[in-house]
Amino acid sequence: MKEFRLAKKIIATLVKDRIKYPGRLVMDTFIMVSRCGILLILYWYVFKINNGAINGTKYIFIAWSAFLYFAFSTLRLRDISRLIMQDVQSGNVEILFSKPVSYFWYRVWWQIGSGLYSFLVIGLLGTIVLFLIIGFPQAISLNLFLPTFLFIFIGSVFLSLILYSIVGFMAFWIQDINPIFWIVDKTVMILGGSYLPLALFPGFMYKIALYSPFGAAQFITHTVYQSWQGEWLLAGAVQAFWILALGITSYLIFIKARQKVSINGG
After folding, report:
1. DSSP assignment letter at 192
2. How far apart are CA 87 and CA 60, in angstroms?
3. Could you read off the pLDDT of 203-247 as tens digits, one per residue?
4. Which DSSP category does 54 fall into?
5. CB of 150 closer than 8 Å to CB of 179
6. Residue 187, Cβ neighbours under 10 Å: how many?
7. Residue 193: left if φ>0, alpha if ψ -120 to 50, beta else—which one?
8. What is d(CA 50, CA 45) in angstroms, rounded to the nearest whole number?
9. Alpha-carbon distance 189 to 185, whole Å?
């Protein structure tokens, strides 16, 4: 109950702050338009010169998949790695460890609250604009879509936070986690279908994206494809497995990190 009140307080405070000072929203909107907008225009031209389909996949599926990836990125869940690193480097982590709340969950709720306003605004406006331009893919009209999308979305949020938290916890041993962060982040970007759509992946690469935690963290990009009706259960099972496996790993690393602070920091 205490954790729930803390989460509600942190998220509400950060959302109010973002509404009052919309600088982050402006920046996220600019990034969204400059990256996703330009990418969609390029793919529109490529599909046009290929008679509207590549490997049997139409442009509408590629466009919505790319949009979901970039809209999801406005939550800025990846930033939790560097926030943990900054806490370690500044010594602020010792103060936070002494508080009667979980440091991990404090950072999780902070990260969600920090990006939630931008995500909701950009996600809603982007959905409306894309619908008016190209319409919805068939998968979105199915009754199955909304519940499975919400299920996979929540799984993607927590798997991303756990994955990037593990990277952040490495700061207790190596201080500068940026090289590890870049490797993990670029892998998530590639296997998540950011610039190369999943439908265009070679078979072996698609399997890596389907069964690895890096691809599973971006499963929302799978939800708009025609294959989603037969794939959602497997996707949910893969996400649940990695959330459990990496969650246990994150917890064990966190315990070791606390012991290290207790020994070295007093």
Report:
1. T
2. 43
3. 888 899 899 999 999 999 999 888 888 889 999 999 999 999 999
4. E
5. no
6. 17
7. left
8. 9
9. 6
Q: Any idea which residue has 């970007």 for tokens?
A: 189
Distance separating alpha carbons of residues 251 and 245, to the nearest angstrom:
10
Nearest to 64, CA basis, from 35, 29, 31, 40: 40
For 148-157, how does the pLDDT look when each residue is reduced to its tens digit (9 = 90+)?
999 999 999 9
Tokens of 175: 């201080």
Rg over alpha carbons for the chain, rounded to the nearest Å, is 19
pTM: 0.92
Q: Distance between CA atoms of 141 and 218, rounded to whole angstroms? A: 21
Q: Burial code of 71-84, b = ≥16 C-beta within 10 A, e = fewer?
A: bbbbbbbbebbbbb
Strands, E assignment, the chain: 53-54, 57-58
DSSP one-letter string for 149-169:
HHHHHHHHHHHHHHHHHHHHH
Q: Tell me which residue has tokens 């996707």.
A: 235
